[in-house]
Each structure stands twice: as C-alpha cells, then as structure tokens.
Amino acid sequence: MLAGREVLESEWETMLSDINGGGRKRARDTILRGPRGVGKTVLLSRFQQLAEQQGYDTIVLQAATAGTGIIEGILARAEERLAEQRPAWQRARDALARLTGVNLSVGLIGAGLTTSPGAERRPLVDPGTLAVTLATLAREIGAETLGGGLLITLDEMQVSQPADLALLAAALQRLNVEHPSSAVAFAASALPNIDDALREAGVTHPDRLFDTKPVPVDLDRADARFAIIEPARRAGVSFSEEGIEKLLTATHRYPAHLQLFADQAWRQAEGPDEITAQDVRHAIVVAENLVETRTLDPRWQRATDRQAELLAAIAVASTQNPTTAEYATSPQITAILGRNANEWSAARIDLITEGDVYAPSRGRLAFTIPTYPPYILRNYEARRLEARLELVPQSTMYERARAQDRATG
C-alpha cells in the first residue's frame, strides 16, 4: 500500500510519457532521497512497474551488493535477457560487447566475466561507450515495444563506489548531449547524504543533473490513516477509531512503523471482522519490543562512545525545547557537549553515513527513527559509565540545554 506517494507517481508517469515523445531532452533523472524506513525502495519498484507498463525494459542495480559495480550490473542483466533470447538485447549485442571486449556472438556474456568480490577488475569503460550502449539498447527496445525505452534503477545509491558514481553521472550527461532522442530514464533511491557522496565522487553540480525528490520521514495524517485502513478493508476487516488513533500516536506516522505496528495489530486481533483498541494496545507493546531488539539495540551497540554521546546530545536538544522539537540545531549541540562543532563533526558524519540521523536542513540534525530519542535517553547513562572515554553526563546535558535556551530567549 503506497499511501501518500500519488504526486511522485504521477510526476514520474508524466515524465516517462514526455521521454517517449521527446527523448532524453525531456528526461529528469530522479533520486528518491530520504531516511531509511520511509518506503524509497518500494517507491523505486513502483517506478519500475509504471515504466514497464509504458514499454520500458529495466536494468535493476543494487549498489549495496558487494563486488558488483555499475557495469557488472548492466552485464548481468544483459546475460539474463540474452538467455531469454530477447530480440532487442540480441540486436544490441555488439554494443554490449564493447563494455567488456568479450565476443558475444556465440553465447552469453558470462564467458570471461566475473563479479565476485576480489575478482580482477573489469577494463575501464569510458562514459561515451556506456552512453552509446544505453542509447542502442533503448532504441532497440523502443522499436520492439512501439514507444518504450530503457530504465536504469539504482537502489542505495549513496554506497556506490565513487568511480561508479562518476561514470554513471558522466554517461547520463553524454546521453543528454550526444543522444538527445534516446528514450533512457534513470531513477535511484538514496539516504539524505547522497549529495555529499556525489560531490566526493567528483560529480560537478549534481543538482543540475539529478532531480532529487525528498521522501518525508512521516506521512500526513490522512495518508497515514489510509495506510492503516485500506489494506484491512480490502480483506473485509475494519479498525476501531480508537485503535487507529493509538497507532497514529505510537508510530509517529513513520511508514516502516505504520506497517509493523498495524501488522502486529492484525496478528493480535481475534476477529473476525474488527481490530479493536485492546488489540492495538497489545500490538504496540509487541511492536515496540521488536523495534528495540531488531533495530535500536544493534544500532546503539554499534555506535562508538563519542557517537553515543552525540546521539544523547541530539536527543536532549530535540526533546528539551518545544520550538525545535524533532530536530537539534548545531548551536544547541555545541552548548550541550561543551565542545565546538569541529570536535564533534566526525561523529556527525559517521552517524549520517550509518543512517542514524539526517540533516533536514543546514545546521540541523534529526533522528531517522522517531522512537530512537527516548531509547537513547533510557540507556545513555549506563553506556556512559562503561565508556572508556569521559562522556558528558545526561544531567549536565539537560542543564546546558536549559541554559542555552535561556540565553537565546
């Protein structure tokens, strides 16, 4: 159930139609950016479905797969399509062969190709060659489907190798300049730090090349209600109004938790045709325990002492001041820790990379999981007492937070 994503879906469908009519010059290479648990990967799969309905074939890439780069992913897809004897891919065989130098005329491209970790790296591929290959594939697919093209999707884009990001960006730009009529589309999912990853890879002006679509960490109230009610309604079951309200409060309308908590309510309910408030109360206890044991405990144990201290400072700041609820500002964190920003910036970068926190805007930090702050505040002192480093006590953090609030009015 993709609640609250209708605008993004509609924009994507319109863009695909524009490409069919005008080629790459009408394309907007899209990055779905947001914290974990907001449904980026599911939405990316939906983009693929919508494209395939318009005659597109898809190269699905997963950046988090060890040892598999952009070119390896494209060739693995080609191997599948050639094995299926897809005419469009067979006609593009020569273009695909130029990516590896392997003769594809007698069989699958697996000959002489390996993507296992530690394997010998493939020859360097220049962006122009990759662009020609993609344009050729799109042309052959379009001829077969009478108007389709080629879609490339990339999940977890932020963990791609810098060389792969640079190659991909350059190839997309070459498509824009040298193959403006080709029906090639690109969509990816990524954590909020994707812009930093692109810049570190040497991609100049990523904001001009990619159309970044923020995926909010929470659904609005109407969409969250729909996400709870509609799947059950389709099965002939209803939620009590009180039960719905309890789920909205407990989950903070965070998509991953809406799914988990509502599923537990379904499992707890005796039925046959209503999920009651009592069912929901029991489900919340079970679901909160699952979130702690499966998600929060591992993240907390993985954090270094300095990272745990910074997480506690963000939790104190984001819960102490109602006017800045749900995020912490850099001045607040600096005051709470008693250290300047340069001294905690390394821990900040690591936590963003891990996906524990994100920057909703410049100078602000927020948690990706809404239930993380109370968990941290319950567990920080025990962690502090066991730490090898001297960490700021939680009571001191609160004192400094109050003093900082008074100083800033």
Describe this structure in words.
With 409 residues, the chain is α/β, with parallel strands linked by helices. The protein has 3 domains: 6-214, Rossmann fold, CATH 3.40.50.300; 221-300, Helicase, Ruva Protein, domain 3 (Orthogonal Bundle); 303-408, Winged helix-like DNA-binding domain superfamily/Winged helix DNA-binding domain (Arc Repressor Mutant, subunit A), CATH 1.10.10. Helix content is 57%, strand content 10%. The strands form 3 sheets. Strands 2-3-4-1-5 form a 5-stranded parallel beta sheet. Strands 8-10-9 form a 3-stranded antiparallel beta sheet. Strands 6-7 form a two-stranded parallel ribbon. A hairpin with a 5-residue loop joins strand 9 (357-358) and strand 10 (364-367). Helix 10 (221-234) packs parallel to helix 12 (255-268) and helix 14 (305-320) packs across helix 15. The longest helix has 26 residues, at 277-302.
What does this entry show, briefly?
The chain has 409 residues and is of the alpha/beta class. The chain contains 18 helices and ten strands. It has helices spanning 6-22, 40-53, 70-83, 87-91, 93-97, 127-145, 162-178, 194-200, 206-209, 221-234, 241-251, 255-268, 277-302, 305-320, 330-337, 341-354, 372-386, 394-408, and strands at 29-33, 57-62, 150-155, 184-190, 210-214, 238-239, 274-275, 328-329, 357-358, 364-367.
What's the layout of helices and strands?
Elements: H1 6-22, E1 29-33, H2 40-53, E2 57-62, H3 70-83, H4 87-91, H5 93-97, H6 127-145, E3 150-155, H7 162-178, E4 184-190, H8 194-200, H9 206-209, E5 210-214, H10 221-234, E6 238-239, H11 241-251, H12 255-268, E7 274-275, H13 277-302, H14 305-320, E8 328-329, H15 330-337, H16 341-354, E9 357-358, E10 364-367, H17 372-386, H18 394-408
Helix pairs in contact: 1-2, 6-7, 10-12, 11-12, 11-13, 12-13, 14-15, 14-17, 14-18, 15-18
